[in-house]
Design goal:
mainly beta, seven-stranded antiparallel sheet, 80 residues
Length: 80
């Protein structure tokens, strides 16, 4: 079963997550997106409950102006 969750935190951040069968999972984009009050954004890609991305970084953090601050690569839940 697919599920989408959106949580608005007291600090002004918003966290969106996509789930399938009780595990973070999304085929067509990041399964977890956090938009912070300062405008920065964190995205992470998940497949079957494991951090994973074939064609780019599985974790990306951008500043409010869109500049990439940090990225990391993961395959099947293991950091590369």
């Amino acid at each position: 079963m697919k599920e989408y969750r959106r949580i608005e935190n007291e600090d002004g951040s918003i966290v969106e997550t996509y789930w399938r069968d009780g595990e973070k999972h999304r085929e067509d984009g990041p399964a977890e997106i956090e938009r912070r009050a300062d405008g920065s954004v964190s995205e992470s890609y998940w497949h079957d409950g494991k951090k994973h991305r074939e064609n780019g970084p599985a974790e990306i953090v951008r500043s409010a102006d869109g500049t990439v601050i940090r990225e990391s690569y993961w395959r099947n839940g293991a950091a590369m």
